[in-house]
Amino acid sequence: MIRMMFSFGEWELDHSRESWRLARIKAVERGQFLGPLRPAGYHKGPDGRLRIDPIEAPIVAEVFRLRAKAISRARVAAYLNASRLETPSGVEFSGHAVWRITSNRVYLGETHSNGAVNRAAHAAIVDQATWERAQYPEPAIRPNSVYLLSGLIRCATCGYTMVGHRQRTKHYTNLIYRCNRNRSCPEHAAAKADEIEPLVEQWIARAMPEDRRVTHWAELPIARRRDVVRSQLDWLYVEPGLAKILERAWVVGDGSGSPKHAHHPPFAEASETARRLGPLKRWPERELTAGLTKFLANRMVWPDFESFAQAGQAQLHAQAMLWGGVYHWAPRFELEIPRGGARLNSSLLEGALAPFLEGRAQWPSRREFEDAGLAKVRAAVRAQGGTAHWAKRFGLTWRENKRKWTMERIERELIAFTRGRTTFPTETDFVHRGRRDLHAAMRVHGGYRWWAERLELRLTNGRKGRGRSRVEQ
After folding, report:
1. Which domain holds residue 112?
2. Nearest-CA neighbor of 154 among 122, 108, 189?
3. What is the mean pLDDT of residues 189-202?
4. Which alpha helices (DSSP H) does 325-406 contain, by range?
5. How many helices (H) and strands (E) does the chain have?
6. CA distance 105 to 130
7. Following CA atoms 254, 260, 266, 272 in sequence, which dihedral angle do they give, to the nearest 10 degrees?
8. 373 alpha carbon, distance to own chain's centre
9. Are 107 and 78 members of one domain?
10. Which of 393, 413, 443 is the last residue of a domain?
């Protein structure tokens, strides 16, 4: 008997729930608003439908317009607190309260409940385009920001705009673009400004019709240069990883779209029309020398990339790095090399070596490097692959000292040392197995990160390639 009563009670409960759900669905179909609190900008009519409040609605519409212009939520909240609008609880508006307003689809004229949606339930306060811009506003760009690609360059993983940052080290300051979505992006993308901006400028120069080509690029203010770039492409996507930027950057669109304030999907949904940036084409030495002579006039110290970029000379900087670099050009113009020397990753090192090795058949000696003022370049060669690696790269012969470690020997012994492992060994692992010599050679010729990627092993203990890296992208 008791079991029967419980069964009947459960049936009654299920019946009541279903009746309640159907009643709410029918109310939505009639356009009635079922929320517990009326949304700002509306009042509830006797039939349960929302009516526009003539006093509050213009204030709410302005909130959407401000957010679409990338005005911060804090500033919008301050605007609301100074207006006649009040929160239901009487407390001041906050950034979160602004988010609750701009993310509410009721302002598009919609009402919904239990999966049912009525898209024409009442009069809308904001149109679809403004509502979407308010969800994903473009980050505000300072007019004099040095970052040419602000608002255009996007992370290929999450589709959001990458933000310009200054990455400061002991002796250098690198301008980089990076995805700033923190936890919401599963794999962040990053790109150095001195690598990607010259490629984009070269691509723009080639893509523009002859009659519209900009002949005085360096004389344009940074905001105008940004407009020129935007006129030729819609988005520039960058994939995550350590590969060269040419292998990770993609151009989408031809500038005919209107994506300035619209949220764009991840790269996977736009990859069909994507195109790669072409490699940097080397200028004739006479043209490069003339450009540097004009730009470096009245300077005492070799300028960094930011100085080149501010003057609209990102391509000039890239060409100087492509052929000779700081250690080649600074002495020619009697300029002081910055304190700490110049950053030399794999690409920059190749450019620094190019004029010095031109016309040679054999790898230069230590004395020849020092006499040419390239002692730091030689040190970078030894740290990033060694003499054998770079001699092969330039097609030169070299004296091989069999007592020293070579890249081939290190790789051969690391393969044997790591056989059966899925993670790269730590320093403790090397010491316990009596291989301090292999550990020291591995750190000098490549470093943890490079060899872990080379052998397809995972780094442990949060190690991110401490030591000197053979290949820095």
Report:
1. 25-135
2. 189
3. 93
4. 326-332, 346-357, 366-371, 375-383, 386-393
5. 19, 11
6. 12
7. -20
8. 36
9. yes
10. 393
| pLDDT per position as a tens digit, 394-449 | 999 887 665 577 888 899 999 999 999 989 999 999 999 888 889 988 888 888 88
Rounded to the nearest 10 degrees, the angle between the axes of helix 73-82 and helix 95-102 is: 90
Residue at a domain's end among 229, 244, 276: 276
- C-beta atoms surrounding 141 within 10 Å: 17
Q: Are the CB atoms for 83 and 59 separated by under 8 Å?
A: yes
Angle formed at CA 38 by CA 36 and CA 40, multiple of 5 degrees: 140
- Please list, in sequence order, all residues whose beta carbon lies within 8 angstroms of the beta carbon of residue 353, skipping any fewer than 6 positions away: 377, 381, 390, 394
CA torsion sign for 33, 39, 41, 44 is positive
The answer to whether 220 and 214 are in contact (CB under 8 A) is: yes
Residue length, the chain?
A: 473
Q: What secondary structure letter does DSSP report for 323?
A: T
DSSP bridge pairs for 174? 167
Q: What are the distances in angstroms from CA 96 to CA 35, 51, 82, 102, 108? A: 19, 25, 17, 10, 20
The C-alpha atoms of residue 390 and residue 57 are separated, in whole angstroms, by 69
**pLDDT band at 100; cut points 50, 70, 90:** confident
Q: Could you tell me if residue 4 is inside a domain?
A: no
And the tokens for 206? 């080639």
Cα–Cα distances in angstroms (integers) from residue 460 to residues 111, 202, 421, 423, 442, in the given order: 51, 41, 12, 7, 16
In Å, how far are 1, 65, 122, 265, 284 from 136, measured between CA atoms?
Answer: 60, 12, 25, 11, 45
- Output phi, psi for 422, to 5 deg: -110, -15
pLDDT, tens digit (0-9, with 9 covering 90-100), for 26-44: 877 887 888 778 888 898 8
* Residues 261 and 158 reside in one and the same domain: yes
Say how far apart CA 195 and CA 199 lie, in whole Å: 7
Q: 338 with 301: CB under 8 angstroms?
A: yes
Residue listed under structure tokens 């049912």? 116
**Is residue 167 domain-shared with residue 95, that is, in the same domain?**
no
Other residues' Cβ atoms within 10 Å of the Cβ of residue 60: 23
The answer to whether 27 and 50 are in contact (CB under 8 A) is no
> 3-state class of 294 per DSSP?
helix
Domain count, the chain: 4
279 class by beta-carbon count within 10 Å (0-12 exposed, 13-18 middle, 19+ buried): exposed
